[in-house]
Amino acid sequence: MYALSHLAALVKADDLAAAVAKLPADAGIYPRSVVKAQNCVLAMARDDHGKCLLLAAPDREALTDGFDGDISSGDGIVAMQAPLTHDHAANLRQVLDWTAPVSLRHRRTTVGFGDRLGLATAGHLRAIQGYQVSPVLAQQSIRELTLTKRTYPIVVDDATFLVFQEGYRDGYGADGDHLKTLADIDVALDAGMPMITLDLTEVLHPEAEDFSDSELDAAFENLPADFRQHVLDTYAGKTFTCGDSQIGFSEQDAKLCAVMYVDAVRFTPEVYRHLKARRGDAFDLELSIDETTAPTVPSHHLFIISELVEQGVILNSLAPRFIGEFQKGIDYIGDLGIFEQQFKVHCQIAQAYGNYKISVHSGSDKFSAFPIVGKHTDCRLHLKTAGTSWLEAARVLTVKEPALYRDLHQAAFDGLDQALKLYHITADFDKIPKLDTLTDEQLPDLMEMVEARQLIHITYGYLLNEPSIRPRFFAAMHKHEETYYQFLVKHFRRHLDALGIPPR
Ligand code: ZN
Fold first, then answer.
1. What are phi and psi of 378, to 5 degrees?
2. What is the pLDDT of residues 187-205, one digit of tens each?
3. Looking at residue 393, what DSSP letter applies?
């Protein structure tokens, strides 16, 4: 149990901030979490084994309702130590409303910080301090949920507790990422997630790109007559001006867009109306077409958004697939000049059709592309990251727990084949030096190496479920919590600086 004398000092304080400042470092209480609601002090605390909520009040009746835990009394107060359960997270969101996720549709710059471990949020919050950025802290795809054996309520609860721990009150988002069906969207909405990233992969028809002219004509003739007429009237032989870009459609271009996107421009309005019915205007809809085989050419982007705007759909953001390679956890691969030309046109389309944000997926570590991204969006953008925070956790092990890192690295090779089925990676893993040739001091260098980063990056699901790794990993991360936060701060400030995000 945590020392009652420390809690008593907080309960009895006239000046809570001054009393918090006097808490000794070994009190186990996160100073930024401490808050008084009515007569009850609430705080987040940790010991060597884990974390809990602490409640303390002059008497038992004054303890905030809705929490259960071990009670003790003394020093003129009653205190409760409550575990970090789902019910307690839900109650915390009721009592302290800033711990609940909100829509960020009016925020200019947002960054998605996927936290697969449920441990990184505090580092993310410290990283954005001083920058004009709003964070999406809870963000997982179904694939990530499956691989980590988490659920949307768990993802939101983990963010809730760490937002409370850090005393962050400026509002954060929660993103049900890469969802493809209304059923999955409902699971995310039920967990209170205001942002939905609709992945159109399953309603796209990319095979049309390889059709011959006669095959394309035949596929087009199969579409409903009024849609065909509308597409030909609106796009065939027409040129659209967005900013200083001209985007033209031949008749074949128009037919190709119709065939590729006919279902996408029907399904998206259905999802939009569903979100509106469930959340009013308090939601952020992102459209994702980034997991397709070919880059999204500007005319296709324009076709999709123009069709959606006509049906009254308001997007918060759209993620095209950009030219070049956006592989996980490493810098951009490709010609930056060509990337900039196309990126600029995507931005101009977004500005012309409702000024939604351009969303950059697999957005971590693209340091050479960030200045271009920041410049052409004027920082009106969403940057989505996830695995890079897991890599920073691995970096903690390379520095603090070399023996555990060596085991984890070795185990990663066992999970590699399975992971390569899910992630598009071109790394040559044979380039990674054998661990027995490296001293402990050299292990952190692996985190600067593309091949080693990708090895660890994509095998997280296997590693987190490996019984010889999982408990040791989480115990080590609890022990080295502050180191993890420091690494995350350093890593993400590099991102924000390269994007040119202005200071607050
Ligand atoms: Zn994506």
1. 55, 40
2. 999 999 999 999 999 999 9
3. H
Ligand 1 centre distance from Cα of residue 157 (Å): 23
β-pair partners for 80: 55, 71
The tokens describing 1, both together, are 């149990």
**CA–centroid distance, residue 172 to ligand 1 (Å):** 20
Token reading at 91: 């109650």
The closest alpha carbon to 110, from 496, 382, 438, belongs to: 382
Q: Which two tokens stand for residue 117?
A: 């471990």
- pLDDT category of residue 149 using cuts at 50, 70 and 90: very high
Residues 193 and 156: beta-carbon distance below 8 Å: yes
Tokens 């030219």 appear where? 323
Per the annotation, the verdict on 401 as an active-site residue is: no
**Ligand 1 mean position, distance from CA 268 (Å):** 17
Instruction: Check residue 94 and give its pLDDT.
Output: 97
Mean pLDDT of the chain: 96
Distance 362 CA to ligand 1 centre (A): 6
Q: What is the pLDDT of residues 43-61, one digit of tens each?
A: 999 999 999 999 999 999 9
In the block, tokens 């046109």 appear at 345
- Spatial neighbors of 65 by CB under 8 A, at least 6 apart, are 91
Specify whether 175 is catalytic: no
Tokens of 78: 């009653």
Residue 229: partners with Cβ closer than 8 Å, 6 or more residues away: none
Q: Ligand 1 centroid to 287 CA: how many Å?
A: 10
User: How far does residue 288's CA lie from ligand 1's centre (Å)?
Assistant: 6
- Burial pattern 432-456, b for ≥16 Cβ within 10 A else e, equals beeeeebeeeebbebbeebbbbbbb
Q: Are 53 and 84 in contact (CB under 8 A)?
A: yes
Q: Quick one: which H or E segment has residue 55?
A: strand 51-57
At 123-136, the pLDDT tens digits run: 999 999 999 999 99
- Alpha-carbon distance of 290 to 374, in angstroms, equals 19
* The two three-digit tokens of residue 129, written as one number: 């301090």
Please tell me which residue in 177, 199, 365, 407 is annotated as part of the active site: 177
- Read off the tokens for 82: 């409550």
Question: How many Cα neighbours within 13 Å face the side chain of 132?
Answer: 15
Distance (Å) from CA 364 to ligand 1 centroid: 12
3-state secondary structure of 356: coil
- Rounded to whole angstroms, the Cα distance separating 148 from 465 reads 7
